Amino acid sequence: MDKLRVLIVDDTTLVRQGVRFLLEQREPIHLVGEAATVQDALELLDAVVPDVILLDQDMPGLDLTETIRLLKARLPRCEVIVLAEWPDEQRALDALEAGATGYVLKDIHIDNLARAIEGVTTGRTMINPRIARQLVERFRALVRERQDKDGVGVGGLTAREMEILLQMAKGATDREIASKMFLSATTVKSHIRSIFRKIGARNRTQAVAFVLRNGWSARTSAPTGSATSGEGNGEAG
Fold first, then answer.
1. In tens digits, what is the pLDDT along the chain, a chain of 237 residues?
2. What is the distance between the alpha carbons of residues 219 and 209, in angstroms, rounded to a whole number?
3. Within the chain, which residue ranges are assigned CATH 3.40.50.2300?
4. How many CB atoms lie within 10 A of CB 190?
5. Under 8 Å CB-to-CB from 198, ≥6 apart: which residues?
6. Does domain 130-221 bear CATH number 3.40.605.10?
7. What is the domain class of 4-127 according to CATH?
8. Closest among 236, 42, 123, 21 to 9, alpha carbons compared
């Protein structure tokens, strides 16, 4: 397997050194650099050309979404995973919509961080499970409400398309979805193309953001105490 080139961007020296120490022996991950500021990261991009950037959620100087857009504009094919001190649903959604493909907590187990790095390079979106679980369940409730009301799924999606979309939001691959739903991989791919077309998504990350954004809207518009609760340990989903 080719090396996965990773750049760490965090203003805390201890965090950078800790991540480097824990990841440097993890094949196929190859740490190509670290930066304490966004400007330093931008200056490093052309020299190190990372496949994945691990980006601290609270970097000083620039807004998180602006930082992600700047990084993606320079290296469109590079994936960005946001590292957060605590789960923040709104900022996770904003990060995804800005172009990030991962949002995990800094207490994530190193095995799961390594899996998240590999996952985003294969088209998966890796989200802290507590955030994903809460918003996906709110989205499920919204789907049931819409279907009970008018028989049509959110975004005009069929029941099968809705289930495939929910599996995608949980981080499942096409093969895992096919196995769980007893479908062929070709059928799953066909449904995913239909889902993208109906909700106006260009890729899996935008499709997942659609689920989470609608789940967030349902959560914030629900009566106090009605949101699904869940516990997360910081592992990538």
1. 689 999 999 999 999 999 999 998 899 999 999 999 999 999 999 999 999 999 999 998 889 999 999 999 999 999 999 999 998 888 988 898 899 999 999 999 999 999 999 999 998 889 888 888 777 777 777 666 665 555 455 678 888 998 899 888 888 889 999 999 999 999 999 999 999 999 999 888 888 888 877 776 555 554 433 332 233 344 444
2. 15
3. 4-127, 130-221
4. 12
5. 155, 156, 157, 161
6. no
7. alpha beta
8. 42
